[in-house]
Design goal:
alpha+beta; Lipocalin; eight-stranded antiparallel beta barrel; 10 strands; 14% helix
Length: 171
């Protein structure tokens, strides 16, 4: 949101694009053009530079999953992770079997993202859209029954809201 109260001028740019500064640049370019007749700087380049450093924009890029662990521990059986999990902020996610591996189903459109095993109870997936940060971790915590009791979705945990608790299966 950009506004100039004295001119009674405002613009709101909404996007669900990857966070690279396009929305911020468009709003600033609009105000510059309205006030000065043309952009005063290359706002897209400036915001692209700012958004190149996730820490500067308040997001946490997470662990570098491009480097495999020296001696990864095997995952539990897929059945230990399968199920539905809930979170008061983000709603429900599901962990399903897909193509003999695991996948996470999330969001209002129930998008499916393949998961890749990283180490023991940690998997990764490639994020998209407004929560995109590249490859992000998914870490399960097992309960006393050997099944995952909760899962932490790293890219949704920027402010501590990324833990989802298992929804018990209905009998």
């Amino acid at each position: 949101m950009n506004f100039v109260l004295g001119e009674q001028l405002a613009i709101i740019v909404l996007t669900n694009a990857h966070p690279i500064g396009i929305g911020e640049a468009l709003g600033t370019i609009f105000l510059d053009t309205a006030l000065y007749g043309k952009p005063t700087q290359d706002w897209l380049a400036i915001f692209k530079h700012v958004f190149a450093n996730p820490a500067a924009m308040g997001t946490f890029p997470g662990f570098d999953y491009s480097k495999p662990p020296a001696s990864p521990s095997p995952a539990s059986k897929n059945s230990a992770y399968l199920g539905r999990y809930t979170n008061d902020f983000f709603g429900d996610i599901s962990i399903i079997e897909k193509d003999s591996g695991l996948a996470i189903v999330q969001g209002p459109k129930k998008k499916t993202f393949p998961m890749k095993h990283y180490d023991r109870d940690t998997f990764t997936y490639e994020t998209e859209d407004e929560n995109a940060v590249g490859r992000s971790g998914i870490t399960f915590t097992s309960g006393s029954d050997g099944k995952a009791a909760q899962v932490l979705v790293e890219n949704l945990n920027v402010r501590g809201e990324g833990t989802f608790k298992r929804i018990p299966a209905q009998k």
